[in-house]
Amino acid sequence: xxxxxxxxxxxxxxxxxxxxxxxxxxxxxxxxxxxxxxxxxxxxxxxxxxxxxxxxxxxxxxxxxxxxxxxxxxxxxxxxxxxxxxxxxxxxxxxxxxxxxxxxxxxxxxxxxxxxxxxxxxxxxxxxxxxxxxxxxxxxxxxxxxxxxxxxxxxxxxxxxxxxxxxxxxxxxxxxxxxxxxxxxxxxxxxxxxxxxxxxxxxxxxxxxxxxxxxxxxxxxxxxxxxxxxxxxxxxxxxxxxxxxxxxxxxxxxxxxxxxxxxxxxxxxxxxxxxxxxxxxxxxxxxxxxxxxxxxxxxxxxxxxxxxxxxxxxxxxxxxxxxxxxxxxxxxxxxxxxxxxxxxxxxxxxxxxxxxxxxxxxxxxxxxxxxxxxxxxxxxxxxxxxxxxxxxxxxxxxxxxxxxxxxxxxxxxxxxxxxxxxxxxxxxxxxxxxxxxxxxxxxxxxxxxxxxxxxxxxxxxxxxxxxxxxxxxxxxxxxxxxxxxxx
Length: 487
Fold this sequence. Notes:
This protein is of the alpha+beta class.
């Protein structure tokens, strides 16, 4: 919502809280991060505003003390409500595509300031989760430190922006068939074309950049056709029209985090080779409980660790009414529940990142002088110290995980490959169980025994029993016996 209404950044009534004083025993050394030095030609970097547009500048990038870029760029303030924050986010652009820090080639790059997230970690964690889920074209990211016109500006996340390109969202916009859309409920940006589907969903066309009337008509008609298909309930037609795995993965990502913006902005879909895909992901600073529960009914729901947030929004309003799609969601949770549990666990992902970048985060709040403060009326009123805000995020994720496990019951879909009798261990009884099924001496009305015992990937046969016997005898097989499978 932060991107679609006028939000007061509390310039007058801002409450400055204690700077970070985090110490950690989770890692002996913290990371040495890349350093970016941007110098504007006219010296206006510290006073840049969004309306100024691009400004000529020079960038130097070092990694482990070695220069990896030293050339001219143009730079501008990026974002909408974030553009009004004191700590600005930026977009910079090279004159031609180039690889930067091993993140693929592109002209345009994003520097996210994360001004509304006192932990500086929510975006990073969610993009890491998206990568774990296997969401195509998830933006690669690096924690960096920025100097602007000689002034140290603290911790930023350098990222690939969501745009088309061979090393970005690889779609064929030149062929006038593929396109990239960003859901925008209300906001209008100059230079962006918008369409509205028959279902009332409004999208900004991110690619092609400047669609003509014929392209806009084609995109609108395509989205309308897809909307009708998703509403039809015809599973086969839906699976032919959309990439169901990406829609399930995207749902899991946003439902776990209860993304506050999901029904308002920064939600992308792309059409490629005749199918609609969900993603890539973007913008998670107002997620994982970092929302003002008193701002709106949407933020009140997003603040809580229980309940559903995404199932009644956008295309999911129809998709989530289908039992088979709900099963796809449960399967994705089952595949990644160990990762999800680790996000907020003691010593887990969040703790490891906080330890790895402890010095960087500390310098952001000391040397760069940024304060943990309430800056936007849709964000949670922050706690006094970095440590407390980090603990809040971790606790929120742990409580959310518990609710996810209770509601979606992902563990009931997991099994050990080779554990035919479902005992939880693989032993000689599983060999016997397979043999009994093959000989039709036992029943398997729901097919679960055959699924668990079918290690070869073919119709259940004596070969499966032989493979399990070899596994028990420590004889190598090409099968995944003993690994976790998903029903």
